[in-house]
Input
Amino acid sequence: MASDQQTGGAPQGRRAIARARRREALARGWGQFRTRRAGMAGLGILLFFTLSALLAPVLFPPETISVTRATGELLAPPSGEFWLGTDDSGRSMLALLAWGARVSLTVGIAATLISMVIGTSVGIASGHYHGFGGAALQRLTDWVLVIPFLPLAIVLATVLGGGSTVTIIVVIGVTSWAGTARLIRAQTLSVEGRPYLERSRALGSGNWHQMTRHVLPNVFPLVLANTTLTVAIAILSETTLSFLGLGDPLRPSWGATLDQAFSNGAVSAGAWWYIGPPGLCVVLVVLSFTMIGRALEQIVNPRLGGQ
Amino acid sequence: MKVRRRWHAWAAFTSAIAVLVALPLLPASAEESPSPATSAADKTVFTVGITQDVDSTNPFTGIAAASFEAYQMMYPTLTEYSAADFSTVPGLAESWEESADKTYWTYKIRPGLKWSDGEPLTARDAAYTFNRVINGDIEQTNYGGYTSTITKAVAEDDTTLVLYVKKPSPIMYQLAVYILPEHIWKDIDGKKVKSYKNEPENGEAVVGGGPYVLIERRKGEYLRFAANPNYYAGKPAADEVVFRVYKNTDAIAEALRKGEVDYANDLSANVFNSLEGAEGITTVPSVYSGFNQIAFNMGAALTDGTPIGDGSKIVLDPQVRLAVAQAIDRQVLADKVYGGFATPGSTVIPPLYTNLHLEPANPVGFDLDAANATLEAAGYTMGEDGVRVSPDGERMSLRLLGRQESSESQKVVEYVKDWLAQIGIEVNVKIVSEDTLYEKVGNGDFDMFEWGWVVEPDPDYQLSTFTCDQRSTEEDGTIYAGLSDSFYCDDEYDQLYEDQKLETDQAKRAEIVKQMQQKLYDSNAYVVTVYYDNPTAYRSDRWTNFTPQPEPDGVLLFQYGTWSYESIEPVTADNADTTSSSGGGVNPALIVVGVVIAAGLVLGGVMIGRRGRSEDDVE
Output
């Protein structure tokens, strides 16, 4: 910081260079990404679902998913009016799915943000500090890693008071960071072994400076690639928890819709349009995030091969 | 090792197939031997599937619904509720009379009765039982409610029982105290009774006086009852009744389909629908005595009037509650949420109690415009965000609690939220467990909630839930919930409640009970959403002549009384004799074929397994 002030105009020049480099790296990354068919396909699917989530209120006004103003027959099969049939309250399944995309994507991304922030901080800190603190953090990570996810999530959701979307986000966020933390820790160790960090230490940079200025930028691509993979898991978890009745039953996420379908006898009624489409949506979105994530991973981590 | 494992897999596979093939062909053998002790063949066995086991066969300690079903099979009561309309009919007592000065009641016991072991059953047994409850400690738990006004019981002779009372009470018509054999129970004192099991010992049945006696019990598995030849209404047609315990109603429905049980109730709408039309099975919706409601917090307080909780002031306004009642379409709830297995609700005494139910003369119908007008007239003006504002400037935002345990409850609150949004009331729904809900309601921490009651034929208990005395109480800083969950408190209502408690003329009492229902209906303390049915299915290819309570479409078992157990008869097919028809009429030849096929498959499996081994050996 001190040197920044002394050299006056230089920082701007340096920042401009950094920005240009970053832009260049991004462009190069995009160029590489474009060559990966799976990644592009994933991106396409994701764009489709994001658009339908954003456009849901326009395409399907809130009245269409209101139980009291539903116009369809109960559990009607697909028809010209209702392309994907209706649920047990006579609501259009298509509208429910579009609104469900909003909930599922929101929960998935919000939970992932929590998970990433915790995972990255713990990962970097445990890689950076070699003393008791680092070891403690690593044991904590191991501990969270070995606790079976589902029981932990169910207990947490119950303790935090089930039945709300925020609870689900928090529960998924605080239970799914351990894998990320491990990954980031490994990368941190490798970055910290590089000579320029030793130089930086020799020049007197503190822990905070090292972690945020040198380690974080270096592990960031990995964080990004891991994020997309975690989103997939988070969406799947949201579906699971909602299916188990721990979500907000009044918000039609895909998992909640599946839960409704099962508890209202869609299976014995043979209402495949009530069970199939929400399941398919989950599969597609999870698949798209996974494909994007894998593609990104291969770009930021050439050692994974794939070229 | 490799070879071995492969052979095992084959053996397991083939025997699994053998079982699968043989199972559907052998329902008779599975059904006719509920326990190893039965030598089946010439006995008719009626099997009932239950989800909650009998917790104790000792009538002083059990509390489960199935336990009381067992007690009324094992022991008689003085009077009974008729199957037709729940009116009082003779039981052990042929007749009864209140004395002119209203200080005692005289019951004439049927003469010449015997317990199942041949000992005489007289008024002395009845007097013994009542005195035991009156003077008892643990004996009070289940029956104290019936004997609170009785001071003592005296048997003047073998057929005359006199009960002295402190004050007149209509409960004297319906004393559901199970009369026990004195010669057995005199040896079981107040201390022993707590842990007394009252189960068959050394293969000897528990001595009883009801239509059936308990002959075998396995905890968590089944209870076996045999018809009592000494029963005063005659020996029932089914030789044995078995209560078999299952994990859930789906499992019972499956067992019914397979023929393992003859009767299943409490079925969900979709299971019921899937059983409809199944061969040999008859499904009946059965009207039931339960209702569900949206309840309001009408000013939560302790019995001394100290306010508790954080209920909204808005629902204290009767006009707001009226508007909510106008905004709930009970017919839609009955059709869409309960799948048609419910009827729209009105008052807190269900219509199946024809003598007591009041159908309000001024019914509040579903009308969103009227609901909006009601709120407008009461000074609740529409805000810019579509939510009304009270005359005090408070936003009309209310909390509504639904139950996690019930998918119907969760749907109902969604519908209510939706309708209320259309009249400018914002509803924040929260789904909680029933335990949590009970606690929140007891503490008064709610605005509205969804729950329900099952109403007994005697209206006293249900009506008491709206008295001031049933509000919460506080002890050492902890608040304990009373029976009241609406915190309705009205002096006039309380007076009517006391009046009906003392009125021994049943017609006059019914009038008071109807007045009370009207008061509750007008206050909208509850918006009774629906009276729900009890979807039931039974093997009509084996059993016939059930007695519904009430007639013509009430429940078939788990009644107030043992009417169906006494009336059912095995189906007698034209081509088969009576005994084998109860087994579902499976042709013995089919069983032989099944066994042959199964044996063949096992043999084939072994052969293929052998060949697999030799091939491996060659390798």
User: Anything to note?
Assistant: The CA atoms of residues 60 and 142 of chain B lie 6 Å apart. The longest strand of chain B covers residues 287-296.
